[in-house]
Specification:
With 576 residues, the protein is an alpha/beta fold. It has ten helices and 44 strands. A 14-stranded parallel barrel has the order 2-5-9-13-17-23-27-30-28-24-20-14-10-6. The protein has a ten-stranded parallel sheet with strand order 3-7-11-15-21-25-29-31-33-36, with no helix packed on it. Helix 8 (456-478) packs antiparallel against helix 10 and helix 9 packs across helix 10. The protein is rod-shaped. The N and C termini lie far apart (82 Å). The model is unreliable at 2-6 and 150-155 (pLDDT under 50).
Length: 576
Amino acid sequence: MTGHSDCLAHLESADRAVYLASLHPGADLDHRGTTLGRALLGELLLAVRDPESRHPILGRARFEEAVFPDGAFFHEAEFSSEAHFRAARFLRFAGFRRTRFAGPADFADACFEDESSFVQARFEGQALFYGARFHGEAEFLGARFHDVAWMGGARFGTVQFDGAGFDGDADFNQVRFDSETSFTSAEFGGRATFSGARFECGVSFGWAHFAMPPVLGPLVSRQTLSLRNAVFDGPVVIEAAASGLDGGRTRFASTATLRLRHADLDLTDAVCEYPVTVAARATPFAVGGSHPLPEDGLPGDPGVRLVSVNGVDAAHLMLHDIDLSACRFAGAVHLDQLRVDGWCTFAVPPTATRRPWSPRKVLAEEHHWRARAGRTPGRRRGWTEAPDGTPGLRPAAIAALYRQLRKSLEDGRNEPDAADFYYGEMEMRRHDASRTMPERALLTSYWALSGYGLRASRALIWLLTAMTGTLLVMMLWGLPADDPKPLTKGRQVAVGQDIAFVTETPDPVNPAGPVAGRLTTERFEKAVRVVINSVVFRSSGQELTTVGTYSEMASRLTEPVLLGLAVLAVRNRVKR
């Protein structure tokens, strides 16, 4: 305090009156380490009250390590410059309702022993609450943390609650944060609520600890909402429309439900001790059921894209209506117990390599492997390359992922999609260089003939090809020139003796003459009977040449198998 060696609380009445009379609205105040009772603080604020607005206006205010034993009432005050309350102690109610902080507001390491209220307060500079301790209820309802202009080429302001402790309830409902916001390592001992909160530049709850079930949402974050290394001891419902949600190493010690919009979700190394549900919200969130939260600035697609579950125990994880086309499943455990419900989508092969009428579902890991394994740009075309730093997997490891996820889908009675994952598993086994050549050759044949028993069209094409080939062989070489006529032979004997007759059928005569002459309607009809009967393991009863006999034997072996593979493929696509 200029001109006095003693603090304001210890001045004589006359000196205090002289000092207070020297103040004016917008005056600088320096009362570091001063104990300011309610009456003394009231006199001080009265001295800087603006006669027109009837609100106190303070210039550069320094209250570091000040003590407010009877409470502090700065309601509707205006700090036109810096406001310093670092390490200040508020032993009773601390009131900053509708207070305007035009410059930086420093409450670092401050201690609020009782309730504190920043309802509808406006912070237009840095807002520093790191290390602050709120022993009572902390209210920030409707507060506004404005974006800070660029100064000297660097951004000047952020909102920091790093390491802050909230022993009571913390109310951040309908608060708007225009600057970067951080609650890193904050401790929420009471109930924390962020309903209707808006984060224009993202927010971090990294290493934060929520002892009581919080209400995180519905809220909006234009950038990433980070929960990395956060701990939730109780049940939690997170409702957020955000461009991204970082749940890496987040620990859910109780049940959790994540209802999201627009978000790219990363659950790398998250700990799910109880059931955790991740679902996409179809309609915008609303506060109070009537006022939709604005989503301008967020990606146009409101869907939720899961990026990674690496390191997650998926036994307690359930996904509903999630885009899994870019999700990395490698490193997760108990994938066979993962629940995939609703309209969850997976990646598909590139257009040039897939069947346009029925593309199969593939994992992102197969995309990455094929993009890496292709020797030429043509083979790599369309396959998505792995993000930087993502380790490459061998086909055997990808086959294991397909196998576990296939069981998960089968347990959920999703047989058609499980069939796609069986196809992917077999593909990786076929490309696995560690397997023996005979096994890979067998798998290649199985793939070529029927797509591992899942491609009915492929099996039917082979069946029609085999039948056509058999038909041509029969018409050209298999059917004899003429149907052999049975010949009955006997020997004349004396009267009274038995007569013996022998009936023989001459050997079929191979057809001769021009090839065109063998392609007649009659021979075609006979060949069709032979082919159709061979498909169902029946003999046509038609006399055949040697070539025709062996051709019929071969067709009776192969064509029923192809028919069975086609039926199996259809069954795998339509069964429940």
